């Protein structure tokens, strides 16, 4: 391959530079969104994935152009690209974290996978597809994220765990407090926990709730947490507050 040659199996150095820089730009745009939201795979990771994918695509198409005219050689531009799509899975898997029943990092893993696809598009010169996908990914990460949070808060049930001393009257006050903040309770389960050094029985109250606006959630948590008999409050994906036992 020469810097000034052209043709279906050859590319100029200028075109190659443009494609690599475009991969850097598009991957960096998506990575920047992940970075400002404090995700494990951020700005530099997405740039490296996109630039690397574009490089492999360029290699797959043009790296063996000198052998194109050989009678026993069959050129297959997709051979290395297919391996990128398969191999990028290990990097995405590293961004997925499981904590109990909660799994995080799936969106970041998906963004790494799609950035690899964008890099392949740029490397192949499929600019329109690369730019269009980048735009749609940004819409998904920015716009759909806010819409998803709104819909989840409106329709999704959350698990609320309250660890407290075994005081039945306090439990009634907690239920009343939640009702005043428009927090709907669907299930309530009381589990015996253990005795403290003061020989006081502790229980864990597990509630399945639907949460209203954020300010009402904060108000309810703050009020309940101020009860002397309440030791900790946890709401799945939202709050995790605890007091030290004396």
Kindly describe this structure.
This protein is of the alpha+beta class and 246 residues long. It has two domains: 13-153, no CATH class; 156-242, 2-Layer Sandwich (Alpha-Beta Plaits), CATH 3.30.70. It contains eight helices and seven strands, in the order ααααββααβαββαββ. The strands form two sheets. A five-stranded antiparallel β-sheet has the order 4-5-3-6-7. A two-stranded antiparallel ribbon has the order 1-2. Strand 6 (230-235) and strand 7 (239-242) form a beta hairpin. Helix 1 runs antiparallel to helix 5. The longest helix is centred in the middle third of the chain and has 29 residues, at 127-155. It is elongated. It starts with 12 loop residues before the first helix and ends with a strand. Mean pLDDT is 77; it is low at 1-6.
Give the helix tally. Answer: 8
Low-pLDDT parts are 1-6
Distance N to C terminus: 74 Å
| Order of helix and strand elements from N to C terminus | HHHHEEHHEHEEHEE
Radius of gyration: 27 Å
Instruction: Please give the largest β-sheet.
Output: 5 strands, antiparallel
Helix share of residues?
40-55%
Look at the structure and give the mean pLDDT: 77
Q: Please, how many domains? A: 2
**Total E-strand runs:** 7
Strand content: 15-25%
The strand order across the widest sheet is 4-5-3-6-7
**Quick one: overall form?**
elongated
Class of secondary structure makeup: alpha+beta
Protein name: Putative Mg2+ transporter-C (MgtC) family protein
Domain MgtC/SapB/SrpB/YhiD N-terminal: 20-149
Pfam families: MgtC
Transmembrane segments: 12-32, 44-68, 80-100, 112-144
């Amino acid at each position: 391959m020469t810097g000034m040659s052209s043709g279906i199996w050859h590319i100029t150095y200028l075109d190659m530079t443009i494609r690599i820089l475009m991969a850097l730009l598009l991957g960096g745009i998506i990575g920047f969104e992940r970075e400002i939201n404090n995700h494990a795979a951020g700005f530099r990771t997405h740039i490296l994935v996109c630039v690397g994918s574009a490089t492999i695509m360029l290699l797959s198409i043009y790296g063996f152009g000198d052998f194109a005219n050989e009678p026993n050689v069959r050129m297959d531009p997709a051979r290395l690209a297919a391996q990128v799509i398969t191999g990028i899975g290990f990097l995405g898997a590293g961004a997925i974290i499981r904590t109990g029943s909660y799994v995080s990092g799936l969106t970041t893993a998906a963004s790494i996978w799609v950035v690899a696809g964008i890099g392949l598009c740029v490397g192949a010169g499929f600019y329109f597809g690369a730019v269009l996908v980048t735009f749609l990914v940004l819409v998904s990460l920015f716009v759909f994220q806010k819409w998803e949070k709104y819909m989840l808060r409106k329709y999704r049930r959350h698990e609320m765990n309250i660890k407290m001393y075994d005081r039945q009257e306090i439990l009634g006050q907690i239920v009343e407090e939640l009702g005043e903040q428009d927090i709907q309770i669907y299930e309530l389960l009381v589990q015996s926990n253990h005795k403290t050094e003061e020989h006081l029985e502790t229980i864990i109250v597990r509630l399945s709730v639907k949460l209203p606006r954020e300010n009402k959630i904060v108000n309810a948590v703050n009020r309940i947490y101020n009860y002397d008999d309440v030791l900790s409050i946890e709401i799945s994906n939202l709050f995790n507050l605890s007091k030290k036992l004396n």
